[in-house]
Amino acid sequence: MLAPLMISALLLITLLPLGSAVAHQFVPPEIVAKIPPREDAPFRTTTTLAEQGRHIFETERFGGNGRTCATCHPRSNNFTLDPAFIKRLSNYDPLFVFERVPALRGLENGKLLRSKALILENLDGFDQPGTMRSVMHLFALGLSTNPVPGFPLTHALGWSGDGSPGDGSLRNFTVGAIVQHMPKTLARVEGTDFRMPTAQELDALEAFQLSLGRRADLVLDPGIAGHLTFSDANVTVGQTLFAGMPSRLGTRRCSGCHTGAGALNDLNQNEQRATGVDRQANAPACLDPTAPGDGGFLAEPAVTVDRSTFCGPGKVGPVTFRGNLFFSTQSIVEAADTGPFFHDNSAATLEQVIDHYRSDAFNNSVTGAGNGFLISDDQRNQIAAFLRAVNTLDNIRAATASIRAALRPRSNMLKAMADARNDVDDAIGVLSEQSPIRIYQTTALPALKNARRLLFLASTLRAAKAELERARLSILALPPV
Q1: What is the dihedral angle through the alpha carbons of 204, 205, 210, 211, rounded to the nearest 10 degrees?
Q2: CA 234 to chain CA centroid, nearest Å
C-alpha cells in the first residue's frame, strides 16, 4: 500500500527545481567552483590520512571566526551537541562567538542554541530565513550515504539529504560547513572571512569521518539466520516488535526503514520519508516566534500555515515551511547516547521518539499513510530497551577497538585510552537509564564499571578488555556450543 506513495515522493524529489537548496546551505557557485579535486597520492594509507583528518577536524579554523569542526562535533560528546553539554561550556567557547562579535550577531539563534542545541542552517540561501537543525553525529557515515535511484546528489547527507554543496558528496561537506558556520563576518567573502580548504585537507577530513563508528550493519531481524539474540526478555520482545508490530491497517516494521537499526532500507538505500515530525508542539517555531518552519528537502513548495495549527493554544502567527517535507532516514544503532532526537531535537528520549510513530501526526503523514503503529506503553518501552541494548553493544565494540589500538606499537596510547573511556562512559550511561533492562543492570553494568576503572594504566588495558567482553557476553544469549 505504501509503494505508490513512495514512488510519487521520488518523482516529486526528481522533478522539483533544484536551485540553491541542494546544498548544506547556500554556497555561491563561484566558491563551489574553487573546490579542489581529489589529490592523487597513492603513497598515503587510509589510516594515516584519517589521523591527519582528525587533527584538522579538531584544530583547523580555516581562517575564520575561531570555530573548528569539533566545535559543533566534539568527540567527547559523540560528535554532537545537546543542551546539557552546551550548558557546561564556557561563555568564551567558539560556539558562542556570535555573542561576542557584532559582525556575527545573526550567525545563530542564541535562545534555541542554548536551550535546544539547534544550529542555524541557511539551506535556501543567505537571503532567506534559515532552518533550525540539530547537530548530527558522524558515526557509520559509510553505511548511511547511499541514496535511492534518481536522487540528485552523490550522498544523502544531513537531515534532509542536501547536506553538501556541489555534487553533494561527503568530501564537499566541509566547504559548506566553513561557509555557513566559520566565517569572520556574515558577508562570507572567500579569502577574507574564511579560506578554502586544500585538496589534502578535504581528502583527510573525508577519511577521518569515514573511519568513525561501525563498518558493517548488524543482523537483528529474528527472521534472518545468524541474528543477534539477547539474554533479557524485554529486549527480545522489543527486537521482535522492531521487526513487525501491530498497526492501524495490520502490521508494520521499524526495520523497513532501519535495516539492522541502521539508516538503509531493505534495498540498501537511504530513503527519504515524510513522517510529520516537522509540525509538533515543541518544534522550534513553537518555542521562538522568530524561528521558521523546516520543510526538509528542497526550497519548494513554500507552504505557510498558522502556528496555532500545530503549536497549540495561544501561539499564533504565520510559519512558512519551504521544501517537500521529506527528511533522510538516520541510523539508530547509536541513538540512545546521541539524543535529543529528530532534526529539530523535538524528542528528548527514545520513548518520545517511539510515541511519535504511534501518534496521529505520523498516521496522517505521507509516510504514515493511515497506517500508524498500535502498541502499548509496555511495548514502547521494550522497543526502547532493545535500542539501548544495541547501542551498548556498539559502545563495547568501539571501546574494545580503541584498546586494541592502544596496545599496538607506536600507537597514541593516551588518545586511544581516552576514546575507550568515552565509549564505556556512554555504555554505562545508557544502561543506567530508567528502562525495562533490569538484567543488564546487574550483569553488564558492573563489568562496564570495572572496565572504566581499569582504563587509566597501560598495564591494565588487557584486563579492561576482558571486562568489556564479559559485559558483551552478558548482554547476548549465545547458542549452546
Answers
A1: 70
A2: 26
Cell of 313: 493554544
The residue whose grid cell reads 607506536 is 410
Alpha-carbon gap, residue 270 to 323, rounded angstroms: 18
CA angle (41, 44, 50) in 5-degree steps = 120
- CA geometry: angle 278, 283, 289, nearest 5 deg: 120
Nearest to 78 by CA among 432, 471, 434, 395: 395
- Other beta carbons less than 10 A from residue 77's beta carbon: 21
The number of helix segments (H) and strand segments (E) in the chain equals 18, 8
Give the pLDDT of residue 43: 57
- The domain locations on the chain are 3-210, 261-377
pLDDT exceeds 80 at position 478: no
Residue 146's contacts (CB-CB under 8 Å, 6 or more residues apart) are 155, 156, 264, 268, 269, 270
- SS3 label, residue 133: strand
Please report, as a single letter, which amino acid is at residue 404: R
> Sign of torsion, CA 207 208 211 217?
negative
Q: What is the mean pLDDT of residues 420-449?
A: 91
C-alpha cell at 123: 539551506
Mean pLDDT of the chain: 91
pTM above 0.90, yes or no: yes
DSSP 8-state secondary structure symbol assigned to residue 301: -
SS3 272: strand
Is pLDDT at 13 greater than 70 in this prediction?
Answer: no
Range list of H helices, 231-323: 233-242, 284-287
